[in-house]
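User: quick one, fold this
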Amino acid sequence: MEEITGIDVLIVKKLTSSLTREEEKKLDKFLNESEENRKYAESLTEIWGLTGEDSLFNKINPQEDWSIVRTRMGFSKKAKKVRLISGFSKVAAVLIPFIITLSLVAYFYIPGFGRLTAYRAERNIEKIELPDGTDVTMKKGSKLIVVRKLKGKARKVKFSGEGYFEIAKDREHPFIITIAKAKVEVVGTAFNLENEGETVRVYVTKGVVRFSGDNEEILVHKGEEAVFDGNRIIRTDIKDDNFIAWKTGFLNFKDAGLEEILKVVTDSYDQVHGYKISANDQELSKIRITTTFNNQPIDEVVEELKIHFNKKIVLTNGILIISD
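Assistant:
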């Protein structure tokens, strides 16, 4: 059987709707290079349909290892002698290599089909415990891909979005997170990790984190944050009191203006998707307040802000609208 290529992986990821934007561009480039490339992709797509994605792949128990996957596909450890009708033999000679390729790609690269498990926080904050005892709290819209059972010399995962990680201590098996074009490596610590596109930010609340990106690597200690903007890493002391408010529900403001507060509220409450200020900006800019909110319902937060800033504030279709 031919070696599995990066293009095979991209084609199967497209068939399972798990392509990233960058991967989709790579696949489109491959397809547009030649008619031969397009026919190759069409062949894999056709075989995927013939094998029956629902019956062949979705019935694979994610908890079972590759040896069981092989057995279910009909490739047992011991070869069996089978008489094939000549016509079918020719078809099988074409189909089987493709089926094996599709199955191997799905097993090794597609979450949910074999050795990878994917976790996604769809609408709410989700907290999960990984097989090694690590706790991950994921903000809405975040995704975590884990090598099943986290076995191997290193505990490797891939993450996107925002999450709070409490890593189970294991000096023999470092925990490595790939996020955008950066990496975080730890053995047992706690930190908040987030990305917006290529920009990655880590806030360390316990222990030390090894943070790397674009051939640059630094250590980030408790009470420090670091940002990788796709080109370089900048490390500073944590200045934002509310970097973890989305998880704790505790919002703390000192001499803060309305817009600063609205940004944190939008980030911390699932019911709020944004804000719009149509009130007098000059008047608002003069008002600064010091206050805290401790897991209070959004309507209580809105009522207090009305009093402090003397403005109308209403939540409409997820948008906080501020007016005179």
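User: anything notable?
Assistant: Residues 6-109 form one domain.
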